[in-house]
Acyl-CoA dehydrogenase family protein (Kordiimonas lipolytica), 394 residues
Amino acid sequence: MTDSTSDRTFLSWPFFDDHHRTLADRLDAWAAATLPDIVDAPGAHEDVDTTCRALVKALGDGGWLRYAVPKAYGGMFDTLDVRSLCIIRETLARHSGLADFAFAMQGLGSGAITLAGSDAIKSAYLPAVAAGEKIAAFALTEPEAGSDVASIASTLKDAGGELSLSGEKTYISNGGIADFYCVFARTGEAPGARGLSAVVIDADTPGLEIAERIEVIAPHPLAKLFFQGCHVPKENLLGARGAGFKLAMATLDIFRSTVGAAALGFARRALEEALKRTRERELFGAPLADLPITQERLAEMALDIDASALLIYRAAWTKDSGAPRVTREAAMAKLYATDQAQLVIDKAVQMFGGMGVTKGVKVEELYREIRALRIYEGASEVQKLVIARQLLSQ
Ligand code: CAA
C-alpha cells in the first residue's frame, strides 16, 4: 500500500472546489485503512472475481459509488462530477489497480443508463449501482468492431412486443460477474453509426452466455459474451433508436478523462516508489538519488505527471462547467496521461533493476497494470484521430 507521500499540491489548482480536496483526503485515508485487507488477502490476486465483488461491496458501503450515479437515484451530485470521478480513480489507482477497476466499471457500466435511461430504468438500476448491490458492465466491443464502433454487427430486432438481441461481444470488463450489461447493437435505422441503439439486459436473461473468460497481463474479470435471441423488454432501450453510437461516444466523453486519471494514479505511485528506492539504495558508495542520471529521470517523471494532471483536470473541469462536448479535451487527457504513465513506470522499473521485474514488487505490478489503459476506451491512435478530425473540421 502507498504511504501517501505523493504530491498533493495539484489540489490547490483552480480547477477544484473545497469538496474535491476533502474527497481526496477522505478517500486516501479510507483506501489505506480498507483496501489491504481485500486486495492483499491470500488468493486475492488469483481469484479476481471474488476480489472485485468484495471491492464493489466495500466501495458501496463506503459511499464512494454514489459519485458514479446522479443524486436523484442515490448519487452524490445532480449530474456526474467528472473532477470527483477523476480524483477517485487517481486515488484508488495509487493504492490498487483492482480497486480503481471496480469503481470505474460501476460508472462506465451504468453511464448509458444515467445519460439516456427512462426514469423507471434509472430507478431499477442506479440506486443498486450506488450501493454496490448490482455490478455493471459496458458491452460495446465486438471481434470485428473495436476501434470502429460504427461497424457493430450484433442485432437488436423487434420480436412481438419485445426486442431480440443476438451477436457476440468481446473484451467485456466485468463479463462473468456483472448483474447487467449495457449493450450496443444494430437496429438498422441507417447504415453505420446512425443505425445503432443501446439496451440494458440482465445477466440472467436466457440466451446470454459467458462464452469464454479472457486472461490478461493485469488480471481482472473479462469475458467474451454470446447473445442468442435474448428477449429484452422495449422499456430497456436507452435513448432513441438509432442514437446508440452518439450515446456510446457521450458516455466515453465522460469516462475517457477518468482513464487518464487512473494512469496518473499509477504514475504517481511509481514516482513514490522510485523516490523511496533511489534514496535508500546505495550505489558506488552513495545513494542512487545522488547520480545525475537518476535526478534527470526523476525530474522527467515529475514533469510528465504534472503535465498529465493539467490535461486531465482541464478536461474534467471543462465538462463540469457545462460544455456539451469535451471530445478533444478528453481525448488529449487520455492519450497523454496513459502514454506518459507508461514511460514514468518504465523508468521506475529501471531504477529497481532486477527487483523491478520481480513478481510481488509494486513497480512490476504497475508495469503490467498500465498497459491496457493505452488500448481500452479508445486506443491512443483513436484519440489522435479524434483530435486531428476536430482540428480539420474547424
Ligand atoms: N458525442 C456525441 N456525438 C458524437 C461524438 C461524441 N463524442 N463523437 C461522434 N459523434 C457523432 C458525430 O457528430 C456524428 O454525428 P452525425 O452523424 O450526426 O454527423 C456521428 O456521431 C458519427 O461520428 P463519426 O463520423 O466521427 O464516427 P466514426 O465512425 O468515424 O468513428 C471514432 C469515430 C472516434 C473512431 C469512434 O468509433 C471511436 O471513438 N472509436 C473508439 C471506440 C472505443 O473507445 N472503444 C472502447 C470500447 S469500451 C472499453 O474499452 C471499455 C472497457 O472494456 C473498459
